[in-house]
Amino acid sequence: MAGRSDNNPSQRPLALIKSPNKITVEGKNSIGIECNNVSSHLDILTAFAANVEINLKSDDSKGLVANIKKQSGYQYCKNKQGKIGAKTQSKNVIKALPRIENVSSRRSGSDILLTWDGVPDSNILYNIEIFCDDVKLRETHTTEIPQYRMKSPTLGKQYHFQVSAKNKQGKIGAKTQSKNVIKVKKIGIKGDTMNLNECKVAFPDGTFNEQTKVWMSVGLDNSICPAEYVAITPVLDISAESTLRKNAIVQMKSWCLELKKEDFEILHFTNDTDWNIIKPDLVMQDRTIEFRCQEFSRVIAAIKRLFSAPVVKENLFYLVGKNQINFAFFNSTLSTEESVKGFYKGLDAKLLPARFNPFVLRRGDKIHVKLRVEGNPENLWFNKPVFVNDDFLKKPRHNFEFELLPIFQQYPEIVIKCEMEKNGIDREIKKFKFPLDSPRENRVRDTEPRSGEQPSLADIEDLCGLVEKIEVIPCDRNDYEKSFTDKGIYSITKPKGLALILNNTFKGIKGKERKGSEIDVKNMTTLWKKLGCKLYGNKTFPKPWESDKTGKQMKDLLGEVSEIKTKYSFIVIVIMTHGGIDKGKPVFEGSDHKLVEVKKIEEMFFNTKNGNLQNIPKFFIYQFCRGTIIDRSTIAADNKMKEPVMESSEKVCVQTDGARRMPTVSDIFVAYPTHEEHAAIRNIYEGSWFINAITNVFMRQAAKHHVADMLTIVNRAMKEKTGTNEAKAMSEQKTSLSQFFYLFPGFPV
After folding, report:
1. What is the CATH number of domain 9-89?
2. Which parts of 583-663 are beta strand (E)?
3. DSSP letter assigned to residue 681
4. 156-172 pLDDT tens trace
5. For the chain, how big is the Rg over CA atoms in Å?
6. Which residue has the higher pLDDT, 212 or 645?
7. In terms of C-beta density within 10 A (0-12 exposed, 13-18 middle, 19 or more buried), how is residue 688 classed?
8. Domain 104-178 belongs to what architecture?
9. What's the average model confidence in pLDDT over 127-156?
10. How is the chain split into domains, by residue range?
């Protein structure tokens, strides 16, 4: 043919994908397709399944392995001009393991009985995972029948479960979380309360004539709600070993707004089809419904379907697989949110940083969700209209799956723009980068302490204010002992922790004296001693926190700790001084005004420096400025509320990207008192906001929460704090922790 060149790949005929080719299981959610005899001039191999194409580049003639999330398919070659060759069907089909449905737990005698819908396949086993107070227990269980009995659950703990199908080759399917959370507690003659998610039950004095074990379950099985009603609370189920002699006082939080007592009813079920009506006593401003009940079974608050009260809906975005985005609308309750997170956790989905404000919705509203990949040549929009009807208001959760976006891996970095619009008026936009910054962001845990489960912070008006008294709450022995077998938690044994605390006051130096820092020293030394740490000192400085240190002395002390010969469970470094940026690098200042580069200090604690530092958390707490940018509205007239910004002989410049980098090695956690380029804030009479918040939160929450969760509470306190002349500061953290870092106050003994 005239004008044809055999050296032009685009003009060559597309080759047939030849046998043998096969499909193999490559993981829980993926299938591998192996194709041999792929010619080197071919640009793209396309795997096709369920009307979804996934394009993969071919670099050689030795074969190609692709991953797709489908059960079967066929392959063909496609060149860059879009021409498609002959299609070849795969020889075998991989059957996906079924998803388990209707997982629920309930009381059975003194045990918890877990049940689910069975699968009609004799080759399928069932894999059970148990979570105690949101922490997964190490052991898993396998059974051939669709039920599992958990004997003698620990009193005072709450449990939920995950069940998945498992074949005889050991492959595990998608995980399904139980619909409800269950808790067991003993109630004495003098009464007590039980709290679980948004539900609370108070047993007055004399409710029982003997100490009684009580089971409390909160779930989302709204299928029990009759057709003429719309559920507005989770399902609460209480059972006890003894009969109630007095009415218990029940509180349940609703996701429905603008409620009056006459608008809804409490349905008290005697069996699956029959119920009695209980009238509520009151409705509180926070949507909590209160009523009294003496005979317990399942109860739920519901409204007649003809009544159109507004409902609050929350939202979350998830990445499923490599390039599929799912969006979840759900009722604004902790129970529902836990269910949503559990569902996507079972899919190994990643939480995307694009959460919008809650929506107040009524029948007839319209929500429009839009997604766009910025930088995509087509700049395509993906639209999803959501129409609010009775069915939408009734169901606690709705999941929406978006079309496959252009393959993310084609771009080194992309920005995804999410837009949410209500009734064509209210609009909110979120943007995030892909790939995601940190895998830790995908592990979601609740950071808000549950009322009644542990000491509440609600009685403290200002977490960033003066710390009155430091009393650390000890953790439960069972929680500590479970950490021995949980690989997701850092091991805390003897010797426990080593803490180095450094503080420069610059006393007597005009314009630089750090008044109030002595309060910070007292807080940090007392807190870490009561958390079981040894405070580091040497012969020259047995108590290094008591006097100012030059830049060299600070580096020498830090170097000594980095070279320790003893294997501690964790290291804590607290540095409180002036800081800023010098020649584009974050630094802090010695008492002789010599500058110490932050990065050089952190490098001392890299895994390559000392084997005793490997696989243990290294926790840095910095109380110093990170730059020179100051919001002028924060400057007080007497300039006493602001941490003075260090000035060097060099021109102070804007902080570079190097200051924002994550540590390059593992198990380092850095906590800053302020955002990069900004000043930290210290009250000369009460101490630093950041140090006060850490002290107030850690001493009350370390018994139940890990360090990352506690610092989220600190962040919230810092966000809410406002000082003189509207002064603000926002703390932040950088981390490369690979496990949960619990402090376990009171242990080991």
Report:
1. 2.60.40
2. 585-589, 595-597, 618-623
3. B
4. 888 889 999 988 788 88
5. 30
6. 212
7. buried
8. Sandwich (2.60)
9. 87
10. 9-89, 104-178, 182-304, 312-437, 477-735
